[in-house]
Amino acid sequence: MDAAVIGAGLAGAEAAWQLAERGWRVQLHEMRPEQTTPAHRTGLAAEMVCSNSFKSDDPFSATGILKEEMRRLDSLILANAQANRVPAGQSLAVDRTTFAEAVTRKLRAHPRIHWVSGEVHAPDPALPTILATGPLTSDSLCQWLSDRLESDRLFFFDAIAPIVEADSIDTTLAFRASRYNKGGADFLNCPLNKEEYERFVDALLTAPRVELNEVDTPYFEACLPIEVMADRGRETLRHGPMKPVGLDDPRTGRWPHAAVQLRQDTLAGDHYNLVGFQTRLKWGAQEEVFRLIPGLEKAVFARLGSIHRNTYVQAPHVLEATLAVKQHARLWIAGQLSGVEGYLESAASGLAAALSVHRHLRGEAPRALPETTMLGSLLHYLAHANPKTFCPTNAMLGLFPPLAPHALDIRALKRAGGIKAVKAAKGAAFRQRSEEALTSFLGGLP
C-alpha cells in the first residue's frame, strides 16, 4: 500500500478516490457498521446525517464557486451528488441513500482501493495517512491524536432536523413554492398566521430538552437548534428558518406571518426534511410541538431530530494550509475534524488533502491551493485564524482576499442596482479570479 485514509465519510471517500485515480494504492478504513456513532445509521461511505443539501448552486455564491473548483478537480462527491439530486430550488440536494450507495459502489469497485472494515485506534506510522474520521471520531483515536498534538480536543454541539413522511403532510394547507420563485416550486411551505406563530413559539420555549453533559461546550452558530434560536428572541425565527419573505400563499396572495419550509429528502419524494429545524427537544416533545405547524398536524416522523457532540482540532496550531499536521510527519487531517463545516467543504478538504499526499508520494515540496480560490481561502483560514477565537467555518466570500481597489466601480453599481448589484458583481469578480488562479495551479500539477 502507498497511503491510508481513515474514515469513509465525505472527506475520506473523496481523498481515497483522488489518490487511487492518480495511481496510488490506498487502504480505506471505516469502522461502521461494526462500530457505529450517535448520528450514523449505515455502514455506507459518504453517509449524510444532518441534512441532504450541498447548498446553493448560485454561480456567484461561495458554494457555487467552490462547486466549480471541485468540478474542475474531478470531484467524486460532486459528480455523484449531481447524479442523485432531488428538487431543491437553487440548491443541490440529494437522495441521501442512493447517493451514499453510489459512492460506496465506486470505492469498493476501484482496483487500487482496499476497503478495511473495523475501528482504527492509531494510524500505521509506515504509511502516509489522511485522518478523515469526522466530528464523531472514536474516543480511542481522539485520545491518540490529542496525545500526539499535545493539545486538548475541542468540541461543539451539532443538531439534526426531523424528517416527515410526505403522505402525512396536509397539502391543502402546505403549498409548493421557492422564495421569489427562484429555482422552481421545489419546497413545501407551511404558512402560519400571527396567532399560530405565537402558539408555536410558546410551545417551543417550554418543551423539555435533552440534557447536555458538557454544559460549557458551544453550539455551531450556523446550525443552532431551533429552540436555542427562539431563546434569543420571539421574532428570531421569523428572520431565520421561518422567514416568510418571497412566499406568496395561494390562499391569500400574500406572504404569511411565518412559514416552515420542507425540502424533498429522497428521489421518490416520500420523505421531507424540515429546513432549519435542528433540535435538541426530547422526542415526545418534538412530535407535540412540530404538529402545531399548520399542515403537519398529522405528521408521521420518519426520523426525529437529535443533538450530538462534534470534535475538531485547533487548526491554527495544528495544520498547514496543505492540511499537513505540523507536529507529525506523514499525517494530514481532512473533513470536519480539520475545522471545516459543511458537507461540500468536507469533501473539498478531502480532495485538497489527497493533492498534498500525492505530491508527498512523488517526493515534491508541499504546495497549497491559491488563497484566491474558494478552497484555498478556506484552508488558509484554518492555518492562519486567531487560535483564541477559532471555530469551524463554512465556505464564505468573506474568506477571500479583497479584490483590487479598482476592480469594481462600487458607486456606479449602487446607483444602477443598489446593494444587490454590488453583491452580484463582487461574486462574479471573485469567481473569475478563482477560475484564473485554479487554471494556473492546475498548470503546475503533475
Task: Explain what the structure shows.
This protein is an alpha/beta fold and 446 residues long. The protein has 2 domains: 3-153 and 313-399, FAD/NAD(P)-binding domain; 160-308, Beta Barrel (Elongation Factor Tu (Ef-tu), domain 3). The chain contains 12 helices and 16 strands. The protein has helices spanning 10-21, 62-72, 76-83, 96-109, 139-149, 194-206, 226-231, 283-290, 315-318, 343-361, 374-384, 410-443, and strands at residues 3-6, 26-30, 53-56, 85-86, 91-94, 113-117, 129-131, 154-160, 163-165, 175-177, 187-192, 258-264, 271-274, 301-303, 306-312, 331-333. Strands 10-11-12-13-9-14 form a 6-stranded antiparallel beta sheet. Strands 6-2-1-7-16 form a 5-stranded parallel beta sheet, with helices on one face. Strands 3-5-4 form a 3-stranded antiparallel beta sheet.
How many individual helices?
A: 12
CATH secondary-structure class of the largest domain: Alpha Beta
Strand order of the largest sheet: 10-11-12-13-9-14
| Helix percent band | 25-40%
Q: What is the element string, with H for helices and E for strands? A: EHEEHHEEHEEHEEEEHHEEHEEHEHHH
Average pLDDT figure? 90
Number of strands: 16
Can you identify the CATH superfamily of the largest domain? FAD/NAD(P)-binding domain
**Low-confidence runs (pLDDT<50, min 5 residues)?**
none
Shape: globular
Q: What is the third-level CATH name, the topology of the largest domain?
A: FAD/NAD(P)-binding domain
> What is the level-2 CATH architecture name of the largest domain?
3-Layer(bba) Sandwich
Going by helix content, strand content and strand pairing, the class is: alpha/beta
